[in-house]
Amino acid sequence: MAPTGVKKGILERLDSGEVVVGDGSFLITLEKRGYVKAGLWTPEVVVEHPDAVRQLHMEFLRAGANVMQTFTFSASEEKLESKWEDVNAAACDLAREVADKGDAVVAGGICQTAIYKHDRDEARVKRLFRLQLEVFAKKNVDFLIAEYFEIAEEAVWAVEVLKESGKPVAATMCIGPEGDKNDVTPGECAVKLVKAGASIVGVNCRFGPGVSLKTMKLMKEGLHAAGLKAHLMVQSLGFHTPDCGKGGFVDLPEYPFGLEPRTATRWDIQKYAREAYNLGVRYIGGCCGFEPYHIRAIAEELAPERGFLPPASEKHGSNWGSGLNMHTKPWIRARARREYWENLLPASGRPFCPSLSKPDF
C-alpha cells in the first residue's frame, strides 16, 4: 500500500480518465461505534479518539479509496466554538497520515452552515468557510470539497471562498432530481457551481444510489446544454431510500437509528459503480451508510478500468462470490456466480414491516 513515486493530483487523475474512488461514511459509522453523538453530528472525535478515526480511514484506504477526506463535517466555529481550530487541524493530520500509506490524496471538506437559513449574510457565511480554509491551507491539503449543500446560493459562496486557495475545488449538493430547496434544478445547480469555479461537481448524501444517479444525469445534461465542462462526482447514501421526499432520508421515520434494514448490499453498490461509470462519472464514493466493504465493491467492480484490486480484496472473492466455490454444500457453491447475486431479491426478515415508509415532512 506504500506510494510509489510522486502522487498525481486530483485533476491530473481525472483529466487522464482515471477512476477516483472516494471514501465512505464517518458520522453514521462512528455514531454506531460509540464515538459521535447523533443530532449534534460534530467531529470532535478526531481529538478525543483519534485512533477510531485513523482506523476508519485505514479501512477505506485498504478497501480501495484514493481520497482521504478530512473528517471536518460540521466543524466550523459556529458548531464547535473554541474547539473548531483544533478539530480541523487534527482531522487534516489524520487524513494525511493515512493517505501517505497509500496512493491517496487529501481533501479538506466544508459543509452548509446553520446561520445561512436564518440570516443570509454572505459576509458572515463566507467568514466561517474562510476560517476552515485557513487551516486547510496551513496543512496543505491536496484539494477542497464543498459538500452537503441544499441551496445553490450557499454552495456558490463556498466555492468562491475555496477558490481563494488556488487549489482544485469539488462541490456536491445534497439534492435529488427535484433540485434544491429553492427549486433550482440539478442542471442549473451544476452550472452555477462550475461558473463559480468548481472543477468537479455532483451530489452527496440525502438520497440512495438510484436517485443520486438520476440527479447526476440531470446535472450532466444541464452542463452540456450550457456548453460547460466539469468532472462529475457522486457519493450517495449506502441506504435504499426511494420513498423519501425532496428533503431526503432525514425526513424518513427511520432516520437516524432505524436505517439498517435499508442498507445496500455490496452487489447493489457494484451496480451503482458500474452505472455511475457508464454515465460518465469518474469520482465515485459514498456518504452515510457506506461502509468499507461498500467502497471495496466499487473498487472491485471498476478494477478492470483501474487496473488493480485493492488490498481488502485479498480476503474476498472479488469475482461475485467466487470464494463460495470451496463450500462443502453444493447449493451454496451454486451461489458463486454473478447472475445469482445480480438477480437476488433479499428478504428483510421482518414479516409485518412495509417495504416503504411515508416521510414525516
From TrEMBL:
Keyword Transferase found: yes
Annotated residues for binding of Zn(2+): 205, 287-288
Pfam families recorded: S-methyl_trans
This protein's UniProt keywords: Metal-binding, Methyltransferase, Transferase, Zinc
InterPro entries: BHMT, BHMT-like, HCY_dom, HCY_dom_sf
Record domain Hcy-binding: where: 8-302
Presence of keyword 4Fe-4S: no
Pathway stated in the Swiss-Prot or TrEMBL entry: Amino-acid biosynthesis; L-methionine biosynthesis via de novo pathway; L-methionine from L-homocysteine (BhmT route): step 1/1
Note accompanying the cofactor annotation: Binds 1 zinc ion per subunit.
Assembly information from the UniProt record: Homotetramer.
PANTHER family, A to Z: BETAINE--HOMOCYSTEINE S-METHYLTRANSFERASE 1, S-METHYLMETHIONINE--HOMOCYSTEINE S-METHYLTRANSFERASE BHMT2
Known function: Involved in the regulation of homocysteine metabolism.
Protein name: Hcy-binding domain-containing protein
Provenance organism: Pipistrellus nathusii (Nathusius' pipistrelle)
